[in-house]
Amino acid sequence: MVVFPNTKINLGLNILSRRDDGYHNISSAFYPLPFEEILEILPAEEFRFETSGLSIPGKADSNLIVKACKLLREQYDLPPVHIHLHKVIPMGAGLGGGSADAAFTIKALNSIFELALSDEDMEKLAGQLGSDCPFFIKNKAVLAEGTGTDFSPIALDLSGKYLVLVCPEVHVGTAEAYSKVKPGLPDKSIKEIIEKMPVAEWRHYLKNDFEASVFPIYPEIEAVKNTLYDSGAIYASMSGSGSSVYGIFDSEPASMPMKATWQGILP
Question: Which residues are known to be catalytic?
Answer without folding.
Answer: 8, 132
